[in-house]
């Protein structure tokens, strides 16, 4: 292997397995997938021996919390981008609950610029639906849509747009620029002080319940609103079996709704809460085994369109405390692919082509992300990840690349490992290791030069 | 016993053993000098993040009768109200050399978090956590029932076949949860009676009968009827229309009290809302154990402190 690798040079990926099972070589050049076929060679290319590795299109996360601006002690756009790259992602949608809130063109453009500067992934800002996430009046959705950040996904995530009239107006308004409202479905009155899934376990543990109906009733209302006004609705982090049923009904009716499930809701159950370890505190909460199974089959039959991480980093002190005082949220970018592998691939529900769909093509389509999710085809942007499905590891702190250590998977054995990630034709992760911010900077300069 | 966090994990032999030690401790209260040297030189911290004068002074009396030094740490007016975390508070107490920590906390599970944290290497006693458990209350209730039934012959006995009806705000009651596990472990049959709004959402895993009708429960002639306190804040949260209606349907009024079997025991963990969940006639009757419960609380807490703190903790 030549060691005089320079920025902007082509890559020859040798012997990778595509999602459909075919074995092939790939040439990446000038930021694109230049060639696909067997026995390829390319002068001056750096070769990556990919025997046994699966080549997946670069993963796209429609639901990430990068915390900057405002909460840089939890994560920055740079560290969150690094966590994403390590997880095989090439694009993340940054949620709007920053400080200041991403509710103006100025803030979303700033987030976009910081993402470009970091250079690990495409950071696509999400715009707030309402000013300050306060649920009172619409933010300047049009200004954000026509800004340099070209926002298409709007969400008050963390809060539900619970006012039915405001939700109706938002759904209608974003039709003007092909936008989508991504709803955090949580009826606020039914979930006051809620701490965990409401059921037998919350009854025993004495933790205030977060009933499934508080999610399902909002989804039911919203799909009917979307039908009424002919708009596009996306449902964030679906967590209950009843929600899957409602969405399945809505889709059968022809309503334009898409839905996501998080990796943790596909793998973990509320039983982990015995012991009150706040690493397992998340909103919506971990649910019952029946809910996990319903989400898995919903993902397999297409009712649930995508997997999105809801990556939510927090500083240590936000979790190192009694349950009620702890913050909601888990980091998830670094572990997402392995968790999906464990939850639905090992069980045979999804093949790798399905994984490429739910973690790349579909989220890119829902978010209207140009240059993402186009798959591994000649001429597509060189956004891809190489994954070793045969690997197995005890997931540990060293596997986390962001600032947050609040992973529910620490000390769990997870299958698979991301070996390399390519973004805009350059490597952000190589030989299983993150490339430094300096290396990425020079790659970017070369690409632009 | 390293910690006393809940009654759920308490075995029958362990529970009876603790109650028997409490009998020995009760004997001390009848002596001229009400004090044992057992915990001399040990420090007990009463760490109260929630006001509860009754429980705190009960633990304080128990620790002092065992000759321990007692430090009362109240969240009110301390650094805790200025935002100090449970972790920093615990580490501070550890640095001061606390051997036992009695914790009362508004968050369910806080004692368990403290015990598992490694922040402090002291025996932890849960003195009530959120709406989860209050194990020493259940132990003193069991002790009180056993004494009423068996008197001086109580030692070694369980509560087999005793029918206990617990009435009131089960949803928010740590007393109800701790009693459920302990009383059933000791062989009693537990029935809960409450408005449907004040029952936990799913009690299918609870080894107890559940009903909404207090008159039916009284007609079944329970051996013990335990009335739970109705908190003022429930009145304004749509759990029931108003206190009059609550009292009419779920209060132990004079008329219902008269229908109890003559040998029935009337219990209340205190403080009581006279005229709401219990009438004065019931509370002050010979059937009432309200004051015995207070006295027995000290004996049971002495037993718990003794089991956690005497001898070499590493061996336990």
Index terms:
heterodimer; A: alpha/beta; Urease, subunit C, domain 1; TIM Barrel; 2 domains; nine-stranded mixed β-sheet; five-stranded parallel β-sheet; 12 helices; 29% helix; disordered N terminus; B: 316 residues; Rossmann fold; 11 helices; globular; Dihydroorotase_CS (chain A); EC 3.5.2.3 (chain A); Dihydroorotase (chain A); hydrolase (chain A); metal-binding (chain A)
Structure description:
Chain A: It is an enzyme of class 3 (hydrolase). Chain A: GO terms for molecular function: allantoinase activity; dihydroorotase activity; zinc ion binding. Chain A: One of its GO terms (cellular component) is cytoplasm. The complex is a heterodimer of chains A (449) and B (316). With 449 residues, chain A is an alpha/beta fold. Chain A contains 12 helices and 19 strands. Chain A has 2 domains: 11-55 and 380-448, Urease, subunit C, domain 1; 58-367, TIM Barrel (Alpha-Beta Barrel). Helix content of chain A is 29%, strand content 21%. In chain A, the strands form 4 sheets. In chain A, strands 1, 2, 3, 4, 5, 16, 17, 18 and 19 form a 9-stranded mixed sheet that branches. In chain A, strands 9-10-13-14-15 form a 5-stranded parallel sheet. A 3-stranded parallel sheet of chain A has the order 6-7-8. In chain A, helix 7 runs parallel beside helix 9. The two termini of chain A are 26 Å apart. Chain B has 11 helices and 9 strands. Chain B has 2 domains: 12-134 and 295-315, Aspartate/ornithine carbamoyltransferase (Rossmann fold), CATH 3.40.50.1370; 135-293, Rossmann fold, CATH 3.40.50.1370. The longest helix of chain B is centred in the C-terminal third of the chain and has 20 residues, at 290-309. In chain B, helix 5 (135-150) packs across helix 11. In chain B, the strands form 2 sheets. A 5-stranded parallel sheet of chain B has the order 7-6-5-8-9. A 4-stranded parallel sheet of chain B has the order 2-1-3-4, with helices on both faces. The radius of gyration of chain B is 19 Å and the shape is globular. Chain A binds chain B through residues 195, 198-200, 202-209, 211, 275-278, 317, 320-325, and chain B through 8, 85-87, 105-110, 112-113, 116, 129-133, 174, 177, 200-206.
């Amino acid at each position: 292997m030549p060691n005089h690798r320079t920025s902007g040079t082509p890559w020859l990926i040798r012997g990778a397995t595509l999602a459909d099972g075919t074995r092939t070589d790939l040439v990446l050049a000038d930021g694109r997938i230049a060639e696909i076929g067997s026995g390829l060679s390319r002068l001056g290319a750096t070769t990556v021996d990919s025997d046994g590795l699966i080549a997946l299109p670069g993963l796209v996360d429609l639901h990430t919390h990068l915390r900057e601006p405002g909460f840089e002690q939890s994560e920055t756009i740079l560290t969150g981008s690094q966590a994403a790259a390590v997880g095989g992602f090439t694009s993340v949608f940054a949620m709007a609950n920053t400080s200041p809130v991403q509710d103006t063109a100025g803030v979303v453009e700033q987030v976009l610029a910081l993402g470009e500067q970091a250079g690990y992934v495409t950071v696509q800002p999400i715009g707030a639906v309402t000013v300050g996430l306060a649920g009172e009046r619409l933010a300047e959705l049009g200004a954000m849509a026509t800004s340099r950040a070209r926002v298409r996904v709007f969400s008050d995530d963390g809060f539900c747009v619970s006012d039915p009239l405001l939700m109706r107006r938002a759904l209608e308004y974003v039709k003007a620029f092909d936008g989508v409202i991504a709803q955090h479905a949580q009826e606020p009155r039914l979930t006051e002080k809620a701490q965990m899934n409401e059921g037998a376990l919350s009854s025993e543990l004495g933790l205030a319940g977060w009933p499934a109906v508080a999610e399902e009733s909002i989804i039911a209302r919203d799909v009917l609103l979307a039908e009424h006004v002919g708009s596009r609705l996306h449902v964030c982090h679906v967590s209950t079996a009843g929600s899957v049923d409602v969405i399945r009904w809505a889709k059968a009716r022809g309503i334009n709704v898409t839905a996501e499930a998080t990796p943790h809701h596909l793998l973990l159950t509320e039983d982990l809460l015995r012991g009150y370890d706040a690493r397992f505190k998340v909103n919506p909460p971990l649910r019952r085994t029946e809910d996990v199974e319903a989400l898995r089959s919903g993902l397999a039959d297409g009712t649930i369109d995508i997997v999105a991480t809801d990556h939510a980093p927090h500083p240590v002190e936000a979790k190192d405390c009694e349950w009620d005082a702890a913050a909601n949220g888990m980091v998830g970018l670094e572990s997402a692919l392995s968790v999906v592998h464990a939850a639905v691939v090992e069980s045979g529900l999804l093949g790798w082509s399905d994984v490429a769909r739910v973690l790349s093509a579909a989220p890119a389509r829902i978010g209207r992300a140009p240059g993402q999710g186009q798959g591994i085809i000649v001429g597509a942007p060189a956004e891809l990840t190489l994954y070793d499905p045969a690997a197995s590891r005890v997931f540990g702190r060293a596997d986390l690349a962001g600032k947050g250590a609040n992973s529910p998977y620490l000390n769990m054995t997870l299958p698979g490992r991301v070996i390399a990630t390519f973004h805009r034709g350059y490597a952000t992760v190589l030989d299983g290791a993150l490339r430094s911010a300096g290396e990425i900077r020079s790659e970017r300069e070369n690409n632009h030069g | 016993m390293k910690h006393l966090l809940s009654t759920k994990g308490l075995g029958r032999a362990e529970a009876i053993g603790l109650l028997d030690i409490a009998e020995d401790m009760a004997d001390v209260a009848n002596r001229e000098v009400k004090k044992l040297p057992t915990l001399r030189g040990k420090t007990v911290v009463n760490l109260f993040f929630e006001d509860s004068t009754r429980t705190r002074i009960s633990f304080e009396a128990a620790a002092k009768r065992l000759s321990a030094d007692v430090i009362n740490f109240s969240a009110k007016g301390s650094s805790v109200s200025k935002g100090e975390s449970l972790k920093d508070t615990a580490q501070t107490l550890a640095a001061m050399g606390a051997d036992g920590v009695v914790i009362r906390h508004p968050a369910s599970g806080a004692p368990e978090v403290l015990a598992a944290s490694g922040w402090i290497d002291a025996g932890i006693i849960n003195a009530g956590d959120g709406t989860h458990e209050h194990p020493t209350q259940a132990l003193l209730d069991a002790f009180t029932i056993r004494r009423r039934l068996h008197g001086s012959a109580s030692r070694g006995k369980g509560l087999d076949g005793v029918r206990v009806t617990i009435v009131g705000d089960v949803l928010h009651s740590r007393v109800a949860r701790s009693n459920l596990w302990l009383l059933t472990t000791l062989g009693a049959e537990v029935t809960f009676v409450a408005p449907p709004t004040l029952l936990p959402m799913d009690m299918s895993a609870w080894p107890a009968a559940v009903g909404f009708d207090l008159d039916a429960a009284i007609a079944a002639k329970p051996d013990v009827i335990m009335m739970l306190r109705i908190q003022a804040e429930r009145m304004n949260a749509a759990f029931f229309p108003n206190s009059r209606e609550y009292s009419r349907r779920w209060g132990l009024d004079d008329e219902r009290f008269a229908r109890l079997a003559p040998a029935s025991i009337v219990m209340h963990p205190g403080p009581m809302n006279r005229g709401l969940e219990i009438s004065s006639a019931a509370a002050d009757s010979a059937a009432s154990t309200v004051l015995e419960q207070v006295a027995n609380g000290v004996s049971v807490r002495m037993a718990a402190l003794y089991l956690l703190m005497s001898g070499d903790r590493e061996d336990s």
